[in-house]
Amino acid sequence: MARKLAGFAEDDLRALAGDRSFARGLGYLDAVSGLEVGESSVTAVVHGTDTYEVELTLGDGVSGWCDCPYGQEGNFCKHCVAVGLTVLRRAEAIPRQRAAARARTSGLEAWLSALSRDELLALVREQLAEDRTLRRRLELRAATARSDLHAVRDRVLALIDPRPFARYGYIEYADASGYAQQIAEAASALSALTAGGGAAQVVGLAEEALRVLAEAYEEMDDSDGVVGEAAAAVAEAHVEACKVARPDPHRLAEWLVGHVLGDDSGVPDLDPLDYAEVLGPTGLSRMRQLAAEATRRRPSGWAERYLMECLVKAEGDVDALVELYAQDLDPSGATHLRIAEELQSAGRADEALAWAERGLRDCAAEAHIDGRLVDHVCAWYARAGRAADAVVLRRDRFHVEQSLAAYRQLRSAAQAAHCWEAERVAALAALRADSSRDRGSRYGGTVLIDVLLDDGDLDAAWQEAAGRADDGQWEQLADLSRETRPAEALTVYLRLAESWKEPTGDRAYERLAGLLLGARDCHHALGTEAAFTEYLVGLRTELKRRRKLMTVLDRHGL
Length: 558
Prior knowledge:
- This protein is mainly α.
- 69% of the residues lie in helices and 5% in strands.
- The protein is built from 28 helices and four strands.
- It has a four-stranded antiparallel sheet with strand order 1-2-3-4.
- A hairpin with a 3-residue loop joins strand 2 and strand 3.
């Protein structure tokens, strides 16, 4: 019934979030407040490390948005899970809440429609007196509509002024989105002014705004990139205005070089090629002259090299670009790859491969090489029918890196060349010899256990695990062996459960519950359910004062 009313079920939330975020979302059910149900969406606030706003869109399923850092990357986060579960728990009330929302919207529209012009003006004036932000927005729209350049300039500079948001001389993470909103409004006003015939004035105003933004960016936490994105809109407004107003190419070239090479070049990251049409041959030549002078003064400067790269690309001289890249070859092979890609794009495939292979030779001893370079060469070998060469390359990288990722790539190449069985024997022998050096995987255990688990060779993993596996690998091994080796898996679950009895908090309680569920499955496979019941009663008695833990165990049927 809950699924019918809400349009989704718990399984949908788990599929969207993944097991980890879903489990973490369970711990935030008591942190959901302000739930509002609309016609096709639900909004709420979740109190966590900070206060986050969540919106779920309902229809043929569910999708979600949250303004937490993880949610703003497009992920269905734990806060979305918590709101979704709250909706399911209140599913019976959803039709009534939707009807109430429709009634409120309908009533508001009817009331507004019935107001006279004078009454609407009075209402707007009342809101303007109470809402400073709304007043600034409407003032800017009015100034733009009447092409009042002086007023637009004042309002744009007021919008991008960071001081109201920098309470202690620094814009905190929580205030960055509000500042970004105002910058976006300023960018919209600049674009509107260009469309209204004020492009020449916008060029100078946008440059002034970009200088202010670059300086402000040095003193803020823009972890989510919202300010940088809004500043990019101001830069785009500058490009648009330049295309219309056609400023002097020499002056524009000098401004661009000054911005790219100056101390305030952080945000936005301008691409001089966006101005190529406006600069024309005269402006590009002036930029090349200025860039060459700057490079002679500081040959190793990143900004100088970036500018030269842009200009050489604009000229379409591949040999000059290769020469520029070759002056500073990165030890990871990334620069060799860029050269190879440029030559490939120019139709010079043989030269491209030669540079890529040179990169592999130059970086052969490096533990960390740009994986894209190896992928590039292997893909070329595959197209050329040189599968054996791809295996040699992957084998060499595996012996240097000794990682799960390198093992997987070797396995894929060797399977394509029909020689995986022999390659696997040699690779495992190398890992066994290396495990004594305590090289470790990303989890702290040896790579040998990782690859055996990845291969699904559980018997070998059990044989090698003692003294080598870390807790994460032990748990993964137990999870995969509940049915085939329930006694061994049970020993692992009980040992790990002991280590999770001391920590407190939602995460610890969910971890302990997961281990107990694994132990219960093992007892079921062994036919010793009574022993598990006795163990669980003892554990609950021991930890009975932890009420939140008892709630978590109850929820999992423990």
